Amino acid sequence: KRHVLDVEGWSREEILMLMEQARHMEDLMGRPIKKVPALRGKLAVNLFFENSTRTRVSFELAEKMLSADVVNWSSSGSSAAKGETLRDTAWTLEAMGADIVVIRHGAVGAAQYLAKKLKRAVVMNAGDGAHAHPTQCLLDLYTAWKHLGDLEGRKVAIVGDVEHSRVARSDVIGFKTMGCQVVLSGPSTLMPHQIGHLNVTYERDVRKALEGAHVIYLLRIQRERQRDGLFPSIDEYHRFWGATEELISSFSRDVLVMHPGPINRGVEIESSVADGENSVILEQVRSGVAVRMALLYLCAGGAA
Ligand code: CP
């Protein structure tokens, strides 16, 4: 049994093996393959304490494609709203036969905590606070790998609200593990206080950060996690760091524009860029199903 809690600790070889497995989960058009019986008889519970569209739906699709029985649980309308603890909620669901628990929670470490408390279920972290979003990272690596092949030596510019982003933290680790050079850009107020341990560079000027980049990874400005009055305003952000057509077209014609979604059109990304020919944003979404199928198969399938 192997939980998926963080990409920290995954080797390059393990990530490549996962990507090869994900490729088997897609047809030649990049669509998920037809249903297979790999998880027949297993019960997957998707435990979402925070909102989600992409992660929740793609986990559900992946579980169903692998023939698992699926229960979707959300905190609103559950006994968590009456004060039941995370541990008791998870034990209750495990007592009803859960083999796989996918959890998204606002608290850092929630998935790790469940992995310790549950006796037999495999735990998949679908995002814990501003800490980690490993499955998003793996689908991002898979999308970039499908376009660029070997990622060794590629330059990845991550632009935006790094401070509040669990995706940024996981993607920095993931792209670095694959041998990429990673540069962060955005207002200094939206950068983590210390980035030295991340082994990346910070370039405030987005034009300098994007020079020579193979991947431009844009992050959502997480207004819900910011206190009022912080610099910059949304208008200022868009003016200095927003991905406009003019900005993107001044770099390589082949640069990949990525974003984990949901996007704020007109803030960190202009619609013409989000929907433009360099954008692989919807491909990321589609890759999410194959990558999550691969993870579920490897971690909770018959061979696990
Ligand atoms: N990228 C991502 O986690 O999107 P959702 O919040 O819609 O799941």
TrEMBL record:
Residues 152-298 form the Aspartate/ornithine carbamoyltransferase Asp/Orn-binding domain. Pathway: Pyrimidine metabolism; UMP biosynthesis via de novo pathway; (S)-dihydroorotate from bicarbonate: step 2/3. SUPFAM superfamilies: Aspartate/ornithine carbamoyltransferase. Carbamoyl phosphate binds at residues 54-55, 104, 133, 136, 261-262. Its EC number is 2.1.3.2. Residues 2-144 form the Aspartate/ornithine carbamoyltransferase carbamoyl-P binding domain. It catalyses: carbamoyl phosphate + L-aspartate = N-carbamoyl-L-aspartate + phosphate + H(+). Keywords: Pyrimidine biosynthesis, Transferase. The keyword Membrane does not apply. One of its GO terms (molecular function) is aspartate carbamoyltransferase activity. L-aspartate binds at residues 82, 166, 220. It comes from the Bacteria. GO terms for cellular component: cytosol. HAMAP family: Asp_carb_tr. Catalyzes the condensation of carbamoyl phosphate and aspartate to form carbamoyl aspartate and inorganic phosphate, the committed step in the de novo pyrimidine nucleotide biosynthesis pathway. PANTHER family: ASPARTATE CARBAMOYLTRANSFERASE, ORNITHINE CARBAMOYLTRANSFERASE, MITOCHONDRIAL. Belongs to the aspartate/ornithine carbamoyltransferase superfamily. ATCase family. Heterododecamer (2C3:3R2) of six catalytic PyrB chains organized as two trimers (C3), and six regulatory PyrI chains organized as three dimers (R2). This is Aspartate carbamoyltransferase. It comes from Thermanaerovibrio velox DSM 12556. The gene is pyrB.
